[in-house]
Write a structure and sequence with these properties.
The structure is a single chain. The two termini are about 45 Å apart. The protein has three domains: about 230 residues, no CATH class; about 90 residues, Immunoglobulins (Immunoglobulin-like, Sandwich), CATH 2.60.40; about 80 residues, Macroglobulin (MG2) domain (Immunoglobulin-like, Sandwich), CATH 2.60.40. It is elongated and about 80 Å long. Helices cover about 0% and strands about 50% of the residues. The protein has one helix and 32 strands. The chain is mostly beta strands.
């Protein structure tokens, strides 16, 4: 039996081949025929992937009557060395979950006319939890409107689809109904690819009606493949068409001018949004709405500016609550601003975390040297530094995207003041 596989496949690394059910997996017309076989790939990771390599370039090199190949990890790949095609041709990667649900990936190549269209196509797929973890290795955010976590709009499954850079195709992605735990269960759902170069999600393509529940299988079709090269990570997800990832908040800030507070934000797109509430808090627990903005509901950039007089003498926290037409809501990350009240003390330090950056705010009567440190909950110092803060208001941003989620303690001090605060990193 091993010799039969050896005619058709080679492995770049050693992998575990588990068979479930009754095996009828034989060489037939130079093809792998699955009749009830369950082929399970084990132990591959992003850092140390394993490959089941199909050297036959025909789209009939794998024939599936029943059974499937189980990937269920980012690093468990099927790599198909596909051929030039004279007509549009579909390559079916016969993935499945456990021994039951069949969730294939259709790779629909365009006809010849593209140089070197005979390139390798490498695919894996794996289920995630309700928070869409584990993300693909290169993905750094699941960001929705106003910077909030938008995992409630994505199917609980990820895909890696890597090709040579000059292959053109679309793909059809399948998922189990129980993996649709979104707030948009009836769909439609489109495919989105993570742009590794820009670290953001690309424009949604394709469509499919949402399904839910055990024993049901859903799919979205016509998803455009934008390849980044055979060695480059190209993660895909399925997200609600009405709430794609990301509906981007370009900026969100607050500052003082003439003893008044200016709160500004810019959205890159607004689709199916009912309204946006600007909320404030003095303790980050009790929030009140101070302004309601009406959206443009377009894909163009929209700017907002709210000006008011803040009476509190303490720091004020702000967030955006976006209410969507379907009744769902998203809440942004939190920003903070020193009160603009004239009674505010003249020398202040504060800090807040926002999207992989620790922002340190200062308001000094004169130039001052600020020394800072960040500690984990065990008291280990993991970040330290020093900078000169100029007279007046100033913000210094410290990138901390390499830190794990968790609770940290931040200290900052100058000759005029001392600041200590708990910082929570939650992506």
């Amino acid at each position: 039996m091993f010799k039969t596989y050896k005619k058709l496949f080679k492995t770049s690394l050693i992998f575990c081949l588990s068979i479930g059910g009754f095996l009828s997996s034989t060489a037939q017309n130079n093809a792998l025929v699955l009749n009830g076989a369950v082929v399970k790939l084990n132990n591959g990771t992003f850092a140390s992937p394993i490959y089941l390599v199909v050297n036959n370039g025909s789209n009939l090199a794998i024939i599936r009557n029943s059974g499937h190949i189980i990937s269920e990890s980012e690093g468990n790949y099927v790599r198909w060395m596909t051929s030039n095609v004279a007509v549009a041709t579909s390559y079916v990667f016969p993935f499945g979950f456990s021994t039951t649900d069949y969730i294939p990936v259709y790779f629909n190549k365009t006809p010849v006319g593209v140089v070197n269209n005979a390139s390798a196509v490498t695919v894996s797929t794996w289920a995630t939890n309700a928070a869409n973890l584990a993300w693909a290795n290169t993905v750094t955010n699941m960001v929705g409107l106003a910077g909030a976590n938008a995992t409630n709009s994505a199917i609980d499954r990820n895909w890696q689809i890597m090709t040579a850079s000059n292959v053109t195709a679309t793909t059809n992605l399948y998922y189990r109904g129980v993996e649709n735990t979104t707030a948009y269960a009836v769909g439609p759902f489109s495919g989105q690819e993570w742009n590794v170069s820009n670290s953001d999600w690309m424009t949604p393509t394709g469509t499919g009606v949402g399904v839910t529940g055990a024993g049901t299988i859903g799919n979205s079709t016509g998803i455009t493949v934008v390849p980044y090269g055979i060695s480059t990570s190209s993660p895909y997800i399925l997200s609600a068409t009405s709430a794609p990832l990301p509906i981007e908040l370009v900026s969100f800030s607050a500052y003082c001018e003439s003893n008044q507070t200016h709160v500004k934000w810019t959205n890159a797109s607004e689709i199916n949004v009912w309204n946006m509430e600007l909320q404030k808090s003095l303790d980050m627990n009790i929030w009140s709405t101070i302004y309601i903005a009406q959206p443009s509901n377009t894909n163009s950039t929209t700017n907002y500016n709210y000006v008011y007089s803040e009476t509190s003498n303490s720091s004020v926290y702000y967030r955006l609550k976006t209410n969507n037409n379907d009744g769902s809501s998203d809440v942004s990350a939190i920003i903070v601003n020193q009160s603009c009240s004239a009674e505010l003390a003249s020398n202040n330090l504060s800090a807040f975390y926002y999207y992989n950056v620790l922002n340190v705010l200062s308001q000094f009567e004169n130039d001052a040297t600020v020394t800072y440190s960040l500690y984990d909950v065990q008291g280990k110092r993991i970040l330290t530094g020093q900078y000169v803060a100029g007279k007046g208001e100033q913000m210094v941003s410290l990138p901390i995207n390499d830190l794990s989620n968790g609770v940290y303690i931040f200290n900052a001090e100058s000759n005029a003041t001392f600041y200590n605060r708990k910082i929570i990193i939650a992506r």
